[in-house]
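Collaborator request, handled under Task 6.
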Amino acid sequence: MSASLIIYSSTDGHTKTICERITNFLNEANETKITSLDEATKLDLSKFNRIIIGASIRYGQHSNELYKFIEINKNILDQKESIFFSVNVVARKPEKNSPDTNPYIKKFLRISKWKPKKIGVFAGKVDYPKYGFFDKYIIKLIMYITNGPTDTSQSYEFTDWSKVEDFAKELQLNP
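Structure tokens returned to the collaborator:
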């Protein structure tokens, strides 16, 4: 039996939700554990055949903790079937919703120097009612500049769930 570890680095929980959806499509013969990035630092990664990392963007960046985790574990990630996906709102735009066209994926690969075996990118969610004052208005400004929604009384989910499911099904075919 093979074992998969799904690690999420999420600011508001949406990346974790995407990770949970991916788990629903993995082979039954594949034992899967989902954990936060913080908890993953305490695990023995060598026990897993496949390591999937999903990370969100906030203010144009993946978290510093994500980069530290990859730097510390790069050798083992390179030895495993390693997969990475980014969750960001810019991926709501068709011209920026693939690993080859998404600026955050390009930046991530350049900074981390990690070469995952498979890469994905999914549009995220803007949940204005959930944000504190500062986040709400900074994100509103970013949305205004990028022609996104600015009504702070609403939530906007841009995730293409069929794209997430297709990504997960590809993982299922290649355990």
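The cover message to the collaborator said: "The longest helix spans residues 64-79. The longest strand covers residues 2-9. Please let us know whether this matches your experimental observations."
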